[in-house]
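Researcher: Next sequence.
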Amino acid sequence: MAVGTMLAGALMSVVLPAGQPVAAPADDPVPTHEGMPDDGFSDEHEGEQDDTVGPDGPPSAAAAPADPVPGRPGDFRLAAGSSLTGRVGQLDAALPKQGLTELMEQANRDSGRDSEDCGGTAIYGSDLPVPDRTCWKSDDATSTEWIPQAITGVSDAQEDEDWGSSNAEPIAVGSYDDQNPGRSDDSSGRDNCVQESVSDACNEKGVRVTFFNQATKKYRHVLLVWPYLNSYDHISFDALHAREGRCPAPTACKAQNGIHAGGMVWYGNYLYVADTANGMRVFDLRKIMDLNPDNDSATEDEMQDGLPSDLTDKKRIGRQSNVWYAYGYRYVMPQVATLKFTTAVNGGDTSANQCYRTGRPKASYVSLDRTGTDHLVLGEYCNAKGGDSNGRVATYPMTALTAAVEGASGTVADADKAYGLPTGGSFDGEPLWHKIQGALRYEGKWYFHRSNAYNNGRLLQATVEGEQLAGNPKALESSIGPEDLYLTHGRGDGFAPRLWSLSEHAPSECGPCERELYSYPMSDVAAGFGS
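Model: Next structure:
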């Protein structure tokens, strides 16, 4: 008899001294139609940072603001949310853990490298050479459910770039689940996502992080989760959701949306993930939970709390009926802290990709600048039609962010600099300085990735002049579907600095589309801009 069967039987009844068996209550599953308990985050639209989502009609060059938006660091203040320490501690006691070094060694999915494995370079244009490319395993390369957005790695994590085996040099990619809504869509009859007739894509799985081992060319997925106490006061977890709610049947309703996770920075033990409408969600790489320690997904493993896990059922998550599930993923990493914007929203919402000169910013992308005192860069993706801003960027000392993560609820982290994006210039009949998917500050200059739907995007450069950013009039052709930016600085491995990014579109989206990770030599980037 399987461990899970024996354990489930033992837990389903207890025996009183008189010998009368009494049924014990089963552990509540996550409600199928009422959503999760409120996690305290504002709702956001899942399509944020999508060039095909925005106000009706194409934006025009005239829609861009005539003058640069002033930088206001105070608008970017972040404050620590309610403590999650107790809940994470309970998960820590219930589930086994796995270190990132071991996870890297057990990476189970094959990636390809360079043209030998990845094919042609048509998606990159002709302005910059792309000597280093990594392509996904076929199902990840073509998935319409998981869309890669964010990139970070060991160069962000620590200055010596050495994590685990010396050549692993892990790179981490964040992807969001684009198949919405999930368990609460009454109108399509999918209000119960565990039915045999529905796909496991029915559930909104939120965000996963993929760790690439560059030495072995293998990678592994880790599901990010939100810890909570279920109705029986037992610790559990669910996927990261931007919106939960109840569908008033029989009307059409989409009660679940996941966060977009448009940017990500790994710094020390912490992983900072952008939450567009709220700020940042923070995870601890020392808290990666392992639901399959024996590395055999076909068998149930006993967790530290004595309950079994089940990786064969890809439609359930968390603790349900005294069994642990994770949508079939072996590894989960629970959120340990929250950094939320304190400024009120000025206007609009993320569904229209609009931005405003003042008020709460959007956390569309993040990166790390190590060229001086370590700073995190945070900025906005905007569609310039509507609103009154191309977008803003700000920088935070990492010491302030770490203190807020490790401090009490309400501890604040202030930005020390903020700028509006440059104005002027046009591209394909649109303002040049909008639709920014990633930004990086390096040795005093700013670099931006500008997307262009299913055509080649552009790499842009700006410098600080007084209290404003001034754009270089030259734009370099970049990949189709360009996203977040990450710099490998080379201080530990001796290689020259490289500017990394990734392309998001699956081949089904357009003829030449490919989904890859890639890097440009930073010297070529600077030379391309004449600097």
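Model: The chain is about 10% helix and 30% strand. The radius of gyration is 23 Å.
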